[in-house]
Amino acid sequence: MTTVDYLEELKQRARQDEALRQELLATRQMHDPLQAFCGKCRELGYPVYEMDVIAAGEEFYAAMKRSTNGGGENSPMLEGQDDFYELFFAGL
Questions:
Q1: How would DSSP label each residue in 3-46?
Q2: Is residue 24 within a helix (H) or strand (E), and if so which, with residue range?
Q3: DSSP, res 70
Q4: Which of 7, 12, 48, 67 is 20 to 30 Å from the Cα of 59, by its Cα?
Q5: Coil vs helix vs strand at 80
Q6: What is residue 86's predicted lDDT score, i.e. its pLDDT?
Q7: For residue 27, what is the DSSP state?
């Protein structure tokens, strides 16, 4: 499984479990929200680390840029589409 798969599975699980959802949302109030979130993921059995989340977003963005208009600098900006951390919480 990929990091994106783990995040999707966890998001589905949190949608069905309000206590888990609240625990995950509480990580956003921590001093380092991404670190707290990833720590909670690992506590729940998902091997998700900060750089995994960042790299997944960058890989997704790079693939999108390559696939639009032949790639390169003339590709449209896809702001926000590569932030799987924010997308995870938007989906909750």
A1: HHHHHHHHHHHHHH-HHHHHHHHHGGGSSSHHHHHHHHHHHTT-
A2: helix 18-26
A3: T
A4: 12
A5: coil
A6: 82
A7: G
Q: How far is the C-alpha of 23 from the C-alpha of 89, rounded, in Å?
A: 12
pLDDT at residue 61, rounded to an integer: 59
Separation of alpha carbons 32 and 34, rounded Å: 6
User: Cα–Cα distance between 87 and 92 in angstroms, integer?
Assistant: 9
Decide: 60 and 5 in contact? Cβ < 8 Å: no
Q: How far is CA 87 from the centre of its chain?
A: 6
Q: What value does the CA radius of gyration of the chain take, rounded to a whole number of Å?
A: 15
CB 92 within 8 A of CB 8: no
- pLDDT tens figures, 28-72: 999 999 999 999 999 999 999 999 888 876 666 555 555 555 555
Q: Which two tokens stand for residue 51?
A: 């750089």
